[in-house]
Amino acid sequence: MASGFGYSGGRSRCHPFWQEFHKCYALADKPEECVLQRDDYLECLHHSKEILRTKTIQDEAHKQKEKRAKEAAASKKKADSAAASNVPRLNVVEDKAKATA
């Protein structure tokens, strides 16, 4: 355990978690009883769960962005294909417009 002092001379950000863990460990019959307090203290020190959660969110956002890009490309390809089809050249669409007019 560090001295409990932070960089600016005050309490360190994780000192309350350390005190809670230390108190539990001193009063516990079995060390396994303090697993939650230990995990809280280690998370405060290393932010491992927070980093994992952030990475998971970023990965999912990246996957969704790629999926939207693929869907947009497929939609554009479909629209270009429809625009380049033979229907306008055969005057099928224009004949229907003249028939209703």
From TrEMBL:
The lineage of its organism: Eukaryota, Fungi, Fungi incertae sedis, Mucoromycota, Mortierellomycotina. Belongs to the complex I NDUFS5 subunit family. Residues 56-80, 92-101 have a biased composition (Basic and acidic residues). Accessory subunit of the mitochondrial membrane respiratory chain NADH dehydrogenase (Complex I), that is believed not to be involved in catalysis. Complex I functions in the transfer of electrons from NADH to the respiratory chain. The immediate electron acceptor for the enzyme is believed to be ubiquinone. Mammalian complex I is composed of 45 different subunits. This is a component of the iron-sulfur (IP) fragment of the enzyme. This is NADH dehydrogenase [ubiquinone] iron-sulfur protein 5. It is a peripheral membrane protein. It holds the Pfam family Ndufs5. One of its GO terms (cellular component) is mitochondrial inner membrane. Residues 56-101 are annotated as: Disordered. Keywords: Disulfide bond, Electron transport, Membrane, Mitochondrion, Mitochondrion inner membrane, Respiratory chain, Transport. InterPro entries: NADH_UbQ_OxRdtase_FeS-su5. It is found in: Mitochondrion inner membrane; Mitochondrion intermembrane space. Disulfide bonds join C14-C44, C24-C34. Its main location: mitochondrion. GO terms for biological process: mitochondrial respiratory chain complex I assembly.
